[in-house]
Write a structure and sequence with these properties.
mainly beta; 0% helix; 73% strand
């Protein structure tokens, strides 16, 4: 049976931060720079979730407020970044077979998508304060939970996987206050997901030490299949997370 759920609310997330900006201030001469970045995220989720013989189309979710975070430590060449994400979609409404819209019946659909990831970073090229190119390599832990409730019963399933991630980012500093970043990564490679890719762009403006304001757009697409059959089969097909981040970046020690 294939069912579809259209929804416009119920998203709570902690962001897509795997491709975020580098430390937002110049590193001190002898030590490390730490940055902590809380965000509000206007999020969107879509995809085809397949579990327990049920196919659920997650579609038409509106951009609504959510949350995000990232923590990073770096010196002039090397660094470490930790990021977490959590998105929950829930809606009470009509659930119908995709090929038969008239078959709708009252019910509830819930879907959550959580990640925890860490990356080691390495700056490549000359030590130029105006621009930098950084590569990163790490791992991502992903957990998804799907639940569909109708008068005919309930279907629930969850899946956890671990996957490698590699990517790069390019940052340009304009004057002493503005930073622009473009970044992307790929992951999975059939170790966790079949394939995952992320692309983001960000602009940050330092208003007063140690605080900068940041705006970012991030798009991530995931293809996952656990290759099992029967009740243990799970698939997340062309799953998408995207949206706009608005937040603050706190950097220590303060920029010179």
């Amino acid at each position: 049976m294939v069912v579809a759920m259209r929804f416009s609310s119920g998203i709570l997330s902690l962001g897509l931060l795997a491709s975020g900006a580098p430390a937002r201030a110049q590193t001190s001469e002898t030590g490390w720079t730490w940055s902590v970045s809380p965000y509000v995220w206007l999020s969107n989720v879509a995809g085809l979730s397949v579990a327990r013989g049920r196919e659920v189309l997650v579609a038409d979710s509106a951009l609504i407020p959510a949350w995000a975070f990232q923590v990073e430590a770096s010196n002039r060449r090397a660094g470490l970044r930790v990021a977490g994400t959590w998105v929950t979609v829930g809606k009470v409404g009509s659930i119908a077979q995709v090929d038969d819209p008239a078959s709708g019946q009252p019910g509830r659909y819930d879907f959550s998508w959580a990640t925890l990831e860490t990356h080691g970073t390495l700056r490549i090229g000359p030590d130029n304060p105006a621009s930098s190119f950084t590569v990163y390599l790490g791992a991502r832990l992903v957990r998804q939970v799907m639940r569909v409730q109708t008068p005919g019963g309930e279907v629930a399933a969850s899946q956890v996987w671990f996957e490698p991630v590699e990517g790069s980012r390019y940052a340009v500093t304009v004057g002493r206050r503005v930073l622009a970043v473009i970044a992307g990564d790929i992951g999975g490679f059939a170790v966790g997901s079949d394939f995952t890719w992320t692309l983001s762009g960000e602009v940050a403006y330092r208003i007063r030490d140690p605080v900068a304001l940041a705006m970012r757009y991030t798009y991530r697409e995931v293809q996952y299949d656990n290759k099992e059959t029967g009740p243990n089969a799970y698939r997340w097909s062309t799953g998408v997370q995207q949206g706009w981040f608005f937040g603050a970046v706190l950097t220590f020690p303060r920029a010179p």
